[in-house]
Design a protein that fits this description.
The chain is α/β, with parallel strands linked by helices. It is built from 8 helices and 12 strands. The protein has 2 domains: 156 residues, Rossmann fold, CATH 3.40.50.620; 136 residues, HUPs (Rossmann fold, 3-Layer(aba) Sandwich). A 12-stranded mixed sheet has the order 1-2-5-4-3-6-7-12-11-8-9-10, with helices on both faces. Helix 8 links the parallel strand 11 and strand 12. Helix 1 packs across helix 2 and helix 7 runs parallel beside helix 8.
């Protein structure tokens, strides 16, 4: 498609064999660095043979290029981006139902992905971790980090080299803490595990090194001992396992320690990890902070972050989906 929308110039779709329903199209952020390969590969793995992908690349034109956007330099930038998209498309076209591509000129990558997902009603956005810094890390200011604030649907962040396997998912994890946000992630993880005939690992962490106790103050005091905290964590885990419903294989996991570190350690044995957004900010938007932010930055497997509120599963898509 061509034209202007929200101040961006949209490039023409290339080599589109099938026009797919907008509501079932997963948006994948692409650049010409290696993390894009991981993002596209995992998107195809997550959605399965019935999946429909939209590979999107934002190209920023330097100010030194001049005021015109139709010069030879810009055409070269567009051609380079389209070449990267076509190469990535060729990697997965035999594994999914359809793949579209789009180049956006002079657009913010994070904003572009959010707008495309909103316009298409897409169930999911997939993006690679930063190509900078140490292996797979999501850096402050990167597209992945910016995308994790305000996206209208679940966001998957795929660490570099985390998706070398192309077969079905075999082990799906979800971190639970009893909050409504973690319940949303739980339902999404359970649906994904059922769709892929995978094991569901429900993970709870007892932060036994933090105790509730009064400082020097007037009034009644309180103290939450380690055993009480551990029992509360076990109760949350039992409730989550019960709520997850019937899965082919269910594996409750109780860990003790700093929550972010324990969840990151568990991620090494997973194909994908689900987490809920933090408990404040706008409804139906992804927002990340605290434990979730630390996990996304350091997890060994792809992490799906679900929005707050109003989530449900669309059974026709083998990925987590939310209703806007």
């Amino acid at each position: 498609m061509a034209g202007h929308r929200h101040g961006h110039t949209f490039g023409a779709m290339s080599n589109v064999h099938v026009r797919v329903p907008a509501s079932s199209t997963v948006v994948v952020g692409v650049d010409d660095f290696a993390p894009s390969e991981d993002a596209v590969t995992f998107a195809a793995r997550l959605t399965g043979p019935s999946g429909c992908l939209l590979l999107a690349c934002a190209v920023t034109v330097p100010a030194s290029a001049g005021p015109g956007l139709d010069g030879e330099y810009v055409r070269e930038l567009r051609a380079t981006a389209q070449g990267a998209l076509d190469s990535l498309r060729a990697m997965v076209i035999e594994r999914v139902a359809a793949v579209e591509t789009i180049v956006v000129i002079d657009g913010s990558p994070a904003r572009m992905l959010q707008e495309l997902a909103a316009e298409r009603g897409g169930p999911l956005i997939v993006v690679g971790s930063s190509h900078l810094g140490r292996l797979g890390r999501v850096l402050p200011g990167s597209t992945a980090e910016k995308l994790l604030h305000g996206a209208p649907c679940p966001v998957v962040v795929v660490p570099k080299r985390a998706s070398s396997t192309t077969g079905p998912l075999t082990r799906v994890g979800v971190a639970v803490d009893g909050s409504p946000e973690s319940r949303t992630a739980l339902h999404a993880a359970a649906a994904t595990a059922r769709a892929h005939d995978a094991e569901l690992r429900v993970i709870a962490v007892c932060d036994a090194y933090r105790f509730g106790a009064p400082a020097a103050q007037n009034g009644p005091g309180f103290f939450i001992d380690r055993d009480t905290r551990a029992q509360r964590a076990r109760d949350r885990l039992d409730a989550a396992v019960s709520e997850a419903g019937d899965c082919v294989r269910m594996a409750p996991v109780m860990r003790e320690g700093a929550p972010a570190a324990e969840i990151v350690a568990e991620s090494a044995s997973l194909d994908v990890l689900f987490m809920g957004s933090r408990g404040y900010g706008p409804l139906r938007a992804v927002l990340l902070g605290g434990v979730g932010g630390a996990v996304v930055r350091d997890a060994a497997c792809p992490v799906v972050v679900t929005p707050r509120g109003g989530a449900r599963i669309e059974p026709g898509v083998h990925a987590v989906a939310t209703a806007a």
